[in-house]
Design brief:
The complex is a heterodimer of chains A (212) and B (222).
Chain A lengths: L2 H22 L3 H23 L3 H17 L10 H20 L39 H15 L2 H13 L3 H8 L3 H21 L8
Chain B lengths: L7 H11 L4 H10 L4 H13 L1 H4 L9 H10 L10 H25 L9 E7 L5 E6 L6 E5 L9 E9 L5 E6 L5 E3 L8 E10 L12 E6 L3
Antiparallel strand pairs in B: 1-2, 1-8, 2-3, 3-6, 4-5, 4-7, 7-8
Helix pairs in contact in B: 1-3
Classes of the chains: A mainly alpha (212), B alpha+beta (222).
Chain lengths: 212, 222
Amino acid sequence: MTARVLKSADDLETRLVDWLSRCALGDRQAFRQLYDATSPRLLGVVAQMVGRGALAEDLLQDVYVRIWKAAGQYRAGAGSPMAWMAAAARYRAIDHLRSRGARPEVAIADLPGHAGIEDGDDDPTQRMPDPGPGPATSFEAQSEAEAVNWCLGTLQGSQQQSISLAYYQGLSHGEIATHLGAPLGSVKTWVRRGLIALKTCLERCGWSEARS
Amino acid sequence: MNLMLGDLPDRLAAEYVLGTLTGGARRRFDALLPAHPALRNAVAGWETRLLTMALKAVPVQPSQRTWTSLEDKLGWTPAAKPSSSLRLRLWQAFATVATLAAVVLGTATHTVSTEAPMIVVLHATKGTEALVAGLSADRRQISIQPLQKVALTSDQSLELWALKKDGPPASLGLIASDKLTAVDKHALPKDTKGLAVSLEPLGGSPTGAPTGPVLFVGELTL
């Protein structure tokens, strides 16, 4: 990632905040700009969980109705606007999955950033996306994404798998247990410990709480 | 299994964002969010932490149909007549406001006027939302109700203003963003030609004049 790309990412963030605040005042044009700038990403998030096609696009409409109606609840400084919108997309997809109980087959090997299905005793360094100098020495904006990737890579295999299945596929504890052939209690522990380890690692990397 | 699990609100927020908080627990957590800023902050923190994972999803360009359907869902289709449901809500709000104004009139004034209360619709300066206000005939009692809940953050208030023919707007006080407010502390100035609602810091304008954007405005036509 170059500094130029980072700058444009920051610019986008500023524009997203501006569009959201104008949406809160009922500005439809700002909403259209927000939609154009973010809908491919959000549809990607939804499609990953429910599959591509008409259903994903229907859910995407619900997501933007929600964003339009709740734009005033987004507070600049309380997390990134893209995180807020991506979360809205995930919540809608999760609601759909839970209400229907139906989901596309999970292909674990297809999960982005997934390092393999081996149990937790493989070499953890293989899961580190970048063995480079460590996130704390990089640009601030760059280091955030880098730190998350790096910290995810430090989780035990079972923790990483459980969190990935929950995050990317919207699986519940029980569904993860079925997929991994593991006891429910173990899955709950992996998820819980994984999240705590992720947060602890990010704090060690200097993750700015002020931002989030 | 009680390892270093961190504090409970943060743990619940993490599992809420991840999606592994399910069923009744998820619904209860959802219900707690509006009134608990600390929980909302914890959720925002986890949404931001996990954003990098969301951005790994391959972007998919939505079809043009998706935008068109979205406009439909928002009620923005070119024939911008109020939908029947909007008309219904308008009439319901009229009825509520008129009833309240009548009750206030009948109980709180010495000389009961037989004139019907006046209804003013305040339209959003941007968008389709509206507020309905009822005025007693002597203009001393105002009741006002948003047709939809107005989205506010925890540090914002809505303030009602009388727009006069001459001079700056006069504050009529704060109003609720989601329910009927009866304003009876301030009589409407005689030369009031309209009502407006502005977005202000919590507790109202610090200066006595509107400081935030005007969200709704309506004219008194009598």
